[in-house]
Amino acid sequence: MFSLSSNLGQVTRITIADILLNDVYVTEDMHIERARILIWKARMTRTSGTEHLNECICLLSEAISILDEVHHGPNKEGTPSSHMLPIAYCLRAFCTQEAEPNSKKVFQDIRTSLNLWLRILSLDDSGDSLPTENIIPLLYNMTDLMSVKGCTELHHHIYQLIFRLFKWKNVKLEVCLAMLWDCRRLSHALCLSPISVTFIRTLSENCGDKSTCIHFWIDCLKDSKAKLIGFQQNFHDLHNNFLRASNKDEGPFQSDITTDDIKDAASELISSALSYAKEAYRIRTLILHQKFKYSAEKQFEKHNDAGKISKMRTFGIKNFQVYSWVATDFWPCGNFLWDVNCCYLSPWSVLQCYLESTLQVGILNDLIGNGLEAETSLSWGKAISCSQSLFPFAVAFSFFEFNVKLYSKEK
Description:
Serine Threonine Protein Phosphatase 5, Tetratricopeptide repeat, about 65% helix, Separase-like isoform X1, 3 domains, globular, 2 strands, single chain
């Protein structure tokens, strides 16, 4: 009847939700329905803008309180009666990240959500009518957010749930792996390997020794030339870390290239590398602007070094926000059915890629002696990372920025 993004549509939906909450779902036997409407209203409230985030968090907290009581009430065992409770915890974590990025509640709510989901051992254990595929984008956002924040200790449980949900939907493990590889969800932010040890450990619980076999991975990615080539380019790092190859697997990847050869080539091609890095940065900046909006201003900090006053360029980040439609398009409310075969880029995976490109451009500029450009990129990346409490990136940008400033002083 009304567009979801129109003001009239938003007001109408919130009014309907208020009527249901105040006049219809008010008795104890309708607690589940009340909680469902609270989550639905929270989505409408978040779509109205980040200025309503606190109200959104309050609505989700009330839903959690109701569902917690149902879950722990008389004659209730340890298994959640529906997916609604872990979903509410999960959504509150995302809203808290936007409202207060440095809050410990983000990690706590995601951990609680995962623990609740892991207790649902089969489809029969849940009396909820929610399509299980609608949980998948929540898990994608979870792993991407935890990755960019450096909270990798939860990745094992997230991978467990992803495998379980795909199995429930009769999706083959090989197909699941190909999709996770395609969306860069087999590792974590700033990881040197495209496949983490945590993922291999979780995968081995589902398929045994095949998880470390190169031939198995090639078989998973063989339907996409692009994915297979990407895997082959990373073969040597993966092989040195934890993947093993049989004699027949090694043939296509054997190389007589030495470390010195690579260093010589890198020295000759570093300028080309910077141009490619800048192009990647340009593209990822365009994608970032589709997911986030923010305001920034250049600032200068005064430093006194043995009586010598100098100014260091910094950036002030204000109102770094996920666009409302991006923040809620994966919420499992209303007529929503997730396509398990789609490649999904969450705002947090986009932000991770953008920051990695920013760091890469800064480092390459430093290597060829462009100190000012390097310092600008690194200072910018640090400002964004600190504003969102993204610890791995904040440390990385600070470290390289310090090196650039130290080298400039020595010159």
